[in-house]
Write a structure and sequence with these properties.
By secondary structure, the protein is α+β, with helices and mostly antiparallel strands. 19% of the residues lie in helices and 8% in strands. Strands 1-2 form a two-stranded antiparallel sheet. It is globular and about 35 Å long.
Length: 73
């Protein structure tokens, strides 16, 4: 893993911490370039990162949502 402000050895990912992405009701979430990934679990995060490493896209792109979403959806 990497710490905030660090970049992975392959230079594909840099971890930045931000104050707010406007997604209080759908967190935890992350933004990768212009894409939002919301309602993340550890498993979903791993899948997104694996997808992005492979070809730069992920089918788990989800947002941004306009309203809070149920975690079960």
């Amino acid at each position: 893993g990497i710490e905030p402000g660090q970049t992975t050895p392959d230079k594909k990912f840099t971890l930045s911490v931000v104050e707010c992405l406007g997604s209080c009701g759908t967190g935890p979430m992350m933004q990768v370039n212009d894409d939002y990934y919301e309602q993340l679990t550890e498993d979903k995060l791993k899948r997104v990162l694996d997808d992005l490493r492979r070809d730069g896209t992920s089918t788990l792109k989800s947002g941004p949502f306009m309203f809070p979403q149920s975690v079960g959806k």
